[in-house]
Amino acid sequence: MIAINSCSSFARAALYSAHSGYIHSVYKKTVNIICDGQLLSIQTRPTVASPISLVSNLDEEGLAALRLQRGMEINILNGSAELGGHMLDMTRCGIWNAKLAEKSSGAADANDIESCLAALMPTGGFADLMLPGGTLWKQSLAAKEAAALLAQATAEMRAGEADAAAETLCGLIGLGEGLTPSGDDFLCGVLAAAYLCSGKAAKLCAALNGRIMERLSLTNDISAAFLKCACAGLFSQPVIELHEKVDLAHSRRSFAAIGHSSGADTLSGILYAARL
What we know:
This protein is of the alpha/beta class. It has helices at 9-17, 60-65, 110-118, 141-158, 162-169, 182-196, 200-213, 221-231, 237-243, 248-256, 262-275; strands at residues 2-8, 20-26, 30-35, 38-43, 53-56, 73-77, 80-83, 86-89, 94-96. It has an eight-stranded mixed barrel. Strand 7 (80-83) and strand 8 form a beta hairpin. The model has no long low-confidence stretch (mean pLDDT 89).
């Protein structure tokens, strides 16, 4: 039995509406599954929940003991799922809403976001690009490419060309290393700015949305799942909390707990859009 402690309403609906599935990939802290084309992640505790997370009661040792393997079939019936001889127990699962409100509670303060990001450095990824005096990015070819794309997109936005800027920013898709490349995490942050910010940021995000959906094949399946969620207004708990204006100290801890540089890269995308 794999007890699921919490998940988003989106993840629950995806599981309950599915008819079949299989194990996509297995890692120390995560087992990714595909349910009727939707990727969901069974994760160990504690974790920072994303829209696709199924946060279990297992630790790393407990997850490894299940001996789940890539390609294993998942039997699904009315939300009841069995994988590798183990049932997913959703009876005591807490449900949270990963959908940001259509209208922001107020424009995000770029200075507060920058302060939060500065506290996470150094993390790698593209965060150093967004901070005054940052030079670490010059050591990375991917970061150099990102810097050129961001400079071009900024110039296009200043010229009132949101569509051109969106096209330029799509060059970030799949750029960088890791399960979720820095460019993808950055774009998730930019998309979050449609709800966190105002003015030009919202116009840019509207132009970005459709273009990203057309290019999901340019990155890996896991990162594509997060981008797809972001295009639908679905975000991880730290982004939701930032929208709700939880205190900065809490936000720093939450973003720092997301992957190696994913939290900082997401925050960098929000900061980029906020500065517009």
